[in-house]
């Protein structure tokens, strides 16, 4: 089983704060890294997929970077809003497998 | 509308009573997968399918079966459910596992309780 770790496990911030989380994964034979956003009582929805070292993706106030050599990805949220409250999941395919393995997620709560 | 559907959405059953959770996608996706979500454990893969008649075990396959007789459908079968299979189940699909096109689309989830 591929070891995909996310930190922190949970995060409380105030509206307007910027924040970031980390996804760590085995760097050997890297294939793809995905970020998903999962709101309570809904299904996970895709944010980004990144495949190349140095990739940067952006969607509105949310952006992500990828470092495949050292095995990590950062997700940044600029100026957090209460509607950003969700669990953010990363999923990685590496170590010789194309099948993505999910981390346990980072739960973000943005207080008004 | 492109979507993944699951049925039922909620199910309470008793130990040993066989059940099937259906999953269907209308996007002509090749890859389909089943996950269970338990508190503190994240999404764990049960089974996946790369295409019709091609299925393989994920990380937690014990107690489950699947079939992929048609491209659009990927049912999850619990032959003899036990209380430790009480969980939230998600079906997901993607066009392939080819990098930028392999983002998964998730169904709405099925909350299963086994008494």
Average of pLDDT of chain B: 94
Q: Please describe the biggest sheet of chain B, giving its number of strands, its sense, and whether it closes into a barrel.
A: 7 strands, mixed
Number of strands of chain B: 11
Sheet of most strands of chain A = 6 strands, mixed
Largest interface: A-B, 23 and 22 residues
Q: Total number of helical segments of chain B?
A: 0
The proportion of residues in beta strands of chain A is over 45%
Low-pLDDT parts of chain A are none
Care to count the β-strands of chain A?
11
The geometry of chain A reads as globular
Computed over alpha carbons, the radius of gyration of chain B is: 13 Å
Oligomeric nature of the chains = heterodimer
Overall pLDDT level of chain A: 94
Your description of this structure?
Chain A is mostly beta strands. Chain A is 0% helix and 53% strand. The mean pLDDT of chain A is 94. Chain B is 0% helix and 50% strand. Chain B is built from no helices and 11 strands. In chain B, strands 2, 4, 5, 6, 9, 10 and 11 form a 7-stranded mixed beta sheet that branches. A 4-stranded antiparallel beta sheet of chain B has the order 1-3-8-7, with no helix packed on it. The mean pLDDT of chain B is 94. At the A-B interface, strand 4, strand 5, strand 9 and strand 10 of A face strand 5 and strand 10 of B.
